YeeE/YedE thiosulfate transporter family protein (Pseudodonghicola flavimaris), 197 residues
Amino acid sequence: MTTIVLAIVIGFAFGFVLDRVGASNPSVIGRMLNLTNLNLAKSILLAIGVGSVLMFAGQMLGLVDVGHMSVKAAYVGVFLGGLLLGAGWALAGFCPGTAVVALGAGRRDAVFYVAGGLLGAAAYMVTYPAWKASGLLDDIAGGKVTLGTVPGSKFDGLTGLPGDILGIVLGLGFIALAFALPERIVHRPAGQPQPAE
């Protein structure tokens, strides 16, 4: 029961932070994707970097149980799905997580995105045998592998590099990139109207 309560509390806190940084606002997402305001991208990079450093450092110190590490298999379909997700994110201004946050924050447009996502998931379940038969779901690059080898985990590493050190270095790289990125790459011409929020 404690695990469920903790998950709910963390979920609400995460959703609150996503809403506060603008991740549930399609206008903010649009400005990030057209490179006119990268504050959200900087927040995302910083969160990934800090999370990576904390997780891998925690594993090295024995504070995080490696047995809880979950690695998803690599296959061609996941790359195609990622392209579809990115296109949908750009068109709608929501990804699945931010749409749920927007729905919780009272945005009515998120209802249609969440409903469409549920219909898409149902369509995938119904057509799953065809996708499986197509070969798009067959493992590539060893399936469930990590970039580096993490001691105590059940997953193989693609390289002989120590996974914990590699995770910390990559996390620090994300943090550095978050601070190095400018606020915008593309500047709007003077007098051009800004989208409403």
User: Anything to note?
Assistant: The mean pLDDT is 87.
